[in-house]
């Protein structure tokens, strides 16, 4: 994508292309036109990623994708800019109002996968920053994007959460990619991983323990 002279779009394009964030001197409002352009962009990006998980049942939820992008953009800018923002955090980082399903989880992930790094940067500056809790709450809801980051997921019913075959495959693959031991040692997930590894566990993840009823 070419630069658009839109701080919002340029931030998202650059982040997804080069995994780096541009910080601006102030937080620019996002126009409806920018949101529409973002929708087109995320639809195209979703299609590219959909080729990897080979499911024609899933389509991009553009509303969720843009919501997540705005959360990411604003949280990144708030790392540097805090003047007159204390009373406006809930407007800049709104809660998710849509329906949480596989399409919305994967659409949000186009941006939210970068959120853990923003949270870690915020935490290194001020561990008491109220923004951190807001962002962690979002990641707890969209925890596929938070794999590798320490979240409290005790309330998740994993059998229900991972019943969709496509989502389950992606979830397990990311656990392996991020080497998330905390998730991988949850008995239900551990059993799924061992089934996926088969005879090749040593090649995939040598150090991972096999969790049984006895060693929980």
Give a short summary of the structure.
This protein has 216 residues and is mostly helical. 59% of the residues lie in helices and 0% in strands. The radius of gyration is 18 Å and the shape is globular.
Give a verbal description of the structure:
This protein is an all-alpha fold and 216 residues long. The chain has helices at 7-18, 32-53, 62-78, 89-92, 102-112, 115-125, 130-141, 158-161, 165-178, 181-184, 187-197, 201-205. It has twelve helices and no strands.
Q: Give the proportion of residues in helices.
A: 55-70%
- Count of beta strands: 0
**In terms of structural class, how would the helical and strand content be classed?**
mainly alpha
Order of helices and strands: HHHHHHHHHHHH
Summarize the biggest pleated sheet: none
Counting DSSP H or I runs of 4 or more residues, the number of helices is 12
- The whole-number mean of residue pLDDT values reads 88
Q: Which strand-content bin applies to the residues?
A: under 5%
- Weakly predicted, low-confidence segments: none
The gross shape turns out to be globular
